[in-house]
Task: inverse folding
């Protein structure tokens, strides 16, 4: 049903105006839908985080604004919009103002390639996973810019730590995804989903896929700069890290980007390991629209897992983070890649 | 071979930690100690050791235990307590005796250190559990602790 609506709008637009303009208008409409949709989704992720954090700590969390606090983060966002944008005199004004956009735009760009359900994918390119890896590492430039241009020691330390951490863990994320690509033989996300109709890849690839998933979750948590890898922000040491000097809407961009990044990491895991919009055992295969439900349900389970990490583990030191990456995750990952290659070569994957 | 046992121990300890927090997460309703304040205002009872304000308990005959010794006034580090007293005729003995007229307590200056309560030799002042101390004017923070017409309880001075 959804698909016929989009098809109708597509035909109507192309009948109305010349082809070039129509495609631009169409892109703009899709961009606006994604932007508003994920800004709101980001807000509700913040609410979810706060509620779940409260439950882990035997509190109740925000439950006053709206039914069970459902409007709390919207109220917070409205407050942030109305706040004054303050800045430091010695800040590098141009870079200081540019940094939040880098972070939020890269976060939103990555969203365009996810297959939410059959044929509901804004941008299906044949190098989907490469695109995701590339885009997710641009975000760190925004963080480095923010820390550098704020002209604040806390910000700079936070930004440099972020640089070290993200560049290191980028390797593990890419290698663990490559392990899975060995099985699919393609980087295109829709094709990867197609392969998973014979069983989700985490089942198909059994032991090496499970190891790859664990490494991916650890490295993905580090990529999003969340606890236990949150020494970028490290409230107890650095104030607020790289966004110490930001206020109002610019701060909100950083905050929202953090949560959208978390969603992206979970969505990549869903797409690559857990069969994206495919329902378990194909129970709702006849209703393609329910794919959105399955996609989001799987994603939120993984988001919950990341929140669980956050409220269980203490923060790592910078040397411990680098030890974990270079001495443990990377060698295991390389061995795992070889193991996966052997598994695929001998045809030991589990197919249904 | 400590490399692999390190990995094993690491994963094991992480899973132990997650199981503990997971148990808390599942039992958050039972374990929650948050008070839903404005709703449960009628039933909310502060704990015994809460330091809300200094009060002077009176019994049913409107009698308190304050002899006017001013130990609390001297003990107070920031002049929160002010005692106005004079010598009045004691009805029983017919002699003049030191009695309090007003025991003034400035809540606005009080840091809740509790030195006055420790200093009191007759346990005349105590901690009250009232925590809703906000008022619209500073003058309401100056309180007279002894009720009008009250007098010293018998047998306190012996």
Result:
């Amino acid at each position: 049903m959804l698909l016929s609506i989009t098809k109708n709008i597509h035909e109507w637009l192309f009948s109305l105006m010349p082809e070039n303009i129509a495609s631009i208008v169409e892109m703009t409409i899709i961009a606006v839908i994604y932007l508003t949709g994920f800004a709101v989704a980001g807000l509700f992720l913040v609410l979810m985080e706060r509620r779940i954090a409260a439950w882990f700590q035997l509190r109740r969390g925000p439950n006053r604004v709206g039914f069970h606090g459902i409007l709390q983060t919207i109220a917070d966002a409205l407050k942030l919009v109305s706040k004054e944008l303050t800045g430091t005199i010695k800040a590098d004004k141009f870079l200081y103002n540019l940094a939040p956009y880098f972070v939020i735009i890269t976060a939103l760009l990555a969203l365009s390639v996810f297959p939410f359900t059959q044929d509901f994918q804004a941008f299906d390119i044949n190098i989907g996973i490469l695109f995701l890896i590339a885009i997710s590492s641009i975000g760190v430039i925004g963080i480095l810019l923010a820390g550098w241009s704020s002209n604040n020691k806390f910000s700079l330390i936070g930004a440099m730590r972020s640089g070290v951490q993200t560049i290191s863990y980028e390797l593990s994320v890419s290698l663990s995804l490559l392990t899975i690509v060995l099985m699919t033989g393609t980087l295109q996300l829709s094709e990867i989903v197609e392969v998973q109709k014979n069983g989700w890849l985490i089942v198909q690839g059994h032991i090496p896929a499970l190891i790859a998933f664990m490494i991916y979750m650890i490295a993905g948590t580090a990529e999003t700069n969340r606890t236990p890898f949150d020494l970028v922000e490290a409230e107890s040491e650095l104030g607020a890290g790289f966004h110490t000097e930001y206020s109002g809407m610019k701060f909100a961009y950083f905050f929202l980007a953090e949560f959208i990044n978390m969603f992206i990491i979970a969505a990549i895991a869903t797409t690559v390991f857990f069969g994206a919009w495919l329902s378990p055992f194909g129970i709702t295969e006849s209703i393609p629209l329910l794919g959105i439900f399955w996609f989001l349900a799987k994603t939120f389970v993984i988001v919950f897992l990341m929140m669980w990490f956050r409220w269980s583990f203490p923060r790592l030191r910078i040397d411990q983070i680098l030890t974990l990456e270079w001495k443990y995750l990377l060698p295991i990952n390389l061995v795992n890649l070889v193991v996966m290659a052997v598994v695929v070569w001998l045809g030991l994957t589990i197919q249904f | 071979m400590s490399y692999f046992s390190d990995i094993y121990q690491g994963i094991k300890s992480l899973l132990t930690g997650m199981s503990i927090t997971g148990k808390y997460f599942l039992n958050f309703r039972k374990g929650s100690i948050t008070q839903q304040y404005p709703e449960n205002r009628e039933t909310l009872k502060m704990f015994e050791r809460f330091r809300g304000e200094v009060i002077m308990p009176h019994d049913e005959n409107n009698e308190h235990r304050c002899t006017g010794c001013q130990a609390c006034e001297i003990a107070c580090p920031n002049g929160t307590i002010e005692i106005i007293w004079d010598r009045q005729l004691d009805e029983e003995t017919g002699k003049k005796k030191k009695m309090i007229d007003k025991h003034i307590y400035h809540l606005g200056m009080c840091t809740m250190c509790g030195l006055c309560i420790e200093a009191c030799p007759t346990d005349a002042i105590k901690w009250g559990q009232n925590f809703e101390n906000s008022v619209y004017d500073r003058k309401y923070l100056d309180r007279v602790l002894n009720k009008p017409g009250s007098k010293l309880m018998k047998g306190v001075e012996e």
